[in-house]
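writing this on my phone so excuse typos. first protein, seq and then structure
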Amino acid sequence: MFNKRWIFFIPVILGIVVIVLLKQNSSAPQQKPAQETTKAVRTLILPQLSVTPMAIGYGTVRPVSTWEAIAQVEGIILEKHPDLAKGSIIQKDSVLFQIDPVDYELNITQIEADILATQAQMEELDIKLKNTQASLAIEKKSLELTKNELKRLKNLLKKSSVSHSDFEAQERNMLAQQQSVLSQSNSLKLIPSQKALLDAQLQQKQSQLKRAQRDLQNTKIIMPFTGRISSNNAEVAQYVRIGNTLTAADALDKAEIEVQIPIGYFRGLLQSDKKINLTEHSEKEIHSALGIKAQVVLKEGSLRTVWDAKFSRITDTLDPKTRTIGVIVEVDNPYSSVTPGSKPPLIKGFFVEVHLHGTARENSLIVPRSALHNQQLYLVNEQNRLAIKKVHIELFQPEFAIIRNLKQDSSKPISAGDQIVVSDLVPAIEGMLLAPQEDKETTEHLISRVKGVH
C-alpha cells in the first residue's frame, strides 16, 4: 500500500527538477555599460561692471536747529504776533510777543539820573582837585615867606633889635602856616581815593544801565530765524514770569536724519587712499576724503520723492547688539522747491529712507549672494563639469557681492564671462557632469541691481 507520507515530497521534488532544467537551458544576462548622470543647472555669465557701493538706512526727519522762547523778564503780555500758532511759518526778526516795558523804562530813567549825579560829583571833585592844588601852592609860598621872616627876626633878636614876644609871635605864625600846608596836602591825597570811589559807582551804575537796557530789549520776543512754530504757551494779557516757555520753533534751513547702518555695509562705502586725522582736518575735508554721497527718499503709497543730502557725521557710539553705526545726513532747504501733490516739504517726523553711496569701483566681478556657498563659487568648466572655487569677498551688498580671486590660489583665476551656477546643487561634487542653461532673467535682475535700478 502506497505510503501517504511520500505525497508531501512529490511537489518539492518536481519543483527542484523544473529549476534544474531552467537553469541548464537559460543563457547568461547581458551586461550594459554604466552611464553618467547629468545634472541640469541654471547659470549666469559672470559680469564685470562698475559698482557704486550703497547702504540703506531708515530714520525720522528732525530739524537741525530748534529754539525755545523763554521769558527773561516778567510782566503782562501786551501784544502777540497775529500768525503765531502751532504749525505757522514765521519770518526772521518778527516780534512774537511784547511784554509791558513801562517798569523797565522807568528803571532806565532812574539809573540814568544816578549816572548824571555821579558824573556831576566827579566834575566837582576835579574842580576841588584844581582848587586844592592852587591853595597848596599858595600856602607853601606863604610858609616860605614866614620862614624867611622868622629867620630875619632871629638875627635881630641876637642884636637885641627886636623883642622876644615879636619873635615868638612870628614863630607861632610859621607853625600855623605849616599846619595849613599839611592840611592842604592831606586833602589833596584824599582826592584820588574819592575819585576812585566815584569811578566805581559810575561803573556800577553803567552796568545797571546796560542790564536795564537789556531787560527792556527782552520785553520783545523776536524770532531768531525763519522757522515753523512747534508750540505756543502764551496769550495777550497773560502775566509771565522769568523762566516761562512762551513758544518754540524749528528752523527751516536744514533737516537731518539719523540712521543705523550695519558696519559691514558702511565699511564698503569707505574707500580712500588719504590718511585722515579726525581731530585736525575740517569737516569739509573729511567729507571730501570719504567721498560719501547721500539721498533721502520718501515713499508714501504711489508717491516717491527724493532729496539730495550730504553726509554730515557719524554718531559717537556703536550699537553692540545690532552691530550698526549711527550716520547722520543733512538736507539743505527742505521746504524749498515744493510741488503740491508730487513733492511735499521734508517735514519733521517723516519716516524716510537714506541712501548712502560710496566711490565707484571699476571693473568689479559681481555675483548674486545666493550663488555663494561659504565663500565658494560653483562654476561650469569647459567640459561642462562642476568646478568649485574659493573666492575672497571684497564687498557685500544686499543682493550681490563683489569678489576677487585669492592670491594664494594657483589654479585658473575666475574672470568675466565664466559660467556661475545659480541654482541649488545638492550634493555638489567636484567634477560632476552638468547640463547648464543660462538664466537670463537672473542676469538682468543682477545687472539692474548693480546699476541701482529698483
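second protein below, same order as before
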Amino acid sequence: MSTALVLLRRDLRLDDHPALAAACAGHDRVLPVYIHAPGEDALWQPGAASRWWLHHSLKALGNRLGEAGGELFIARGEALDVLRDLSGRCGATAVFWSRRYEPAAIAHDRRLEHALRAEGLAAESFPGNLWCEPWQLTTTDGKPYRVFTPYWRKLRAEVPLPPPQGTVRARKWTRLPGGLEIDALGLLPKIDWDRGIAATWRPGEAGAAEMLEIFVDSALAGYQQMRDWPGRHGTSRLSPHLHFGEITPRQVWHGLRASIARDATRPHADLEPFLRQLAWREFAHHLLYHFPDTPTENFNPRFDQFHWSDEDPEAIRRWQHGRTGVPLIDAGMRELWHTGWMHNRVRMVVASFLSKNLRQHWLHGARWFWDTLVDADLANNTMGWQWVAGSGADAAPYFRVFNPYTQAKRFDPDATYIGRWIPELADLPVRLLLEPWRDPAALAARGYPAPMIDVSASRDAALTAWKTLD
C-alpha cells in the first residue's frame, strides 16, 4: 500500500486540485498536510487580515475533509523537518504540492524538492492557482512582457482555460495522531477588531462558490460599466478566494459560462471584460516572476531618483485611519479597515492620494494594504501600487493624478458609497459629500476633519517633482 503526502498552502480546496488528484490517482493512501511556516515568506509574512482568512479557510477545509472521511494534518515548523517526520511515521514515498510564485516561495520549494528527492522520496509540484504559468508566455524575442495589452492578446489566443477537474476522492485518507488544532496556530486577533470582516466574508470553497453565484445573479450583467461604481455590488469579490486557492480561474470561467448556458436571459457581453480582469492577475504574477525585486524596488529605475516627500508618520496615519478630510479617500480606507477589502476603483484613488498628493513612498501604502487586505497578494499588491505611483510596468503616467472629488462625482454620484462608510455625514445633502468645500462648517459640526491637503496644489507640487527626473 503506497502513501503520499500532499502539502497544502494556498490551494485550500478539494475541487479542481491537480496535486491532490495526482496523489489520489497514484497512491493507495493520502494524507493532506498544512505546515504553518510563515518565515518561508521572508519579508512578506501574512498580514493580520490574511491570517484571519487563513484560520477560517483551514477550518472550512478541515471540515470538508472530515465529511469525506479524512483529516487535515496541521503542524508547525520547517517544512522539510515535518515532512521527513511524517513520511517516516506513515511510510509515505511521495510528496506533492501546488506551486507558489513569490520569489521567496520559489526558492524555498526548490530547496525542498531537492532535499526530499535526495532522501529517496518522490517530490513533484503542480500548477494549481493560475490560468497560465508565469514563465509560459514571452514576447517574440523571448523576453518577458512589460505591457499588459499584448500579454492579454497572447494569453487569450494561445492559452485556453480547460474545464476544471471534479472533486478529489481518495481511495483511503490516512490519519495520524499528533496534529495541531487550528486554534493553536494563533492566527486570530487577540483584540476583537474582526467583526466587520467576519460579517462580510465566508472563507472556504463553499463561500467561494456562493460568491460566484452572487456575482452571476447581481453583478455580471452590466459588469463592464458598473465595476467602477463602488456603491454597488458590481465586481466579483472573488479575489480572496482566488488568493487562498479556494477556487481556480478555470472554475470561475466555466462556472460563469455554465450559468449563462442554463439561463438564456443572462448576458454574454460582459464575460470577456471580466476575463480580461482575471488576466490582470496573471500579468501581475508574470511580472513578479521575471522581476522579483519589485516588491521593494522600483520597476522603472528612473524613479530611484524621484524626490519623495520626507516620511510623515502623522500624514500616513491619517490616511490609514480614514481621517484625511477628503470623503472618497476616507470612505475607502474605512471600508478597508472594516471589511478587509476595498473596491478596485477606490484602491487606485487612495493610492494616488498617498503617493502623489501626499508624495509618500508607495511602499508605505503597499505595506498597509498587505496587513489589512484579506486578498493581500504580493504580485497584485506590487503591481497595483507601482502602477499608480508611475514607477511600474505599463504604469499610469506619473502626471495622471486621480482627483478624488472628480472620481466621486463620476463613480459615486449619489454618494451611496461615501455615506455608507462615513455615517456621520450620511444625512447631509449629496452635494456636500461630493463638494465638501461648499460648506466645511457643516462637516466640521459632525466631527469630520478639514482636508489635510489642497488636492490641486499638491497635484501641482507632485508634477513639479516629477519634472526634475532626468
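The chain has 21 helices and five strands. thats all i got for now
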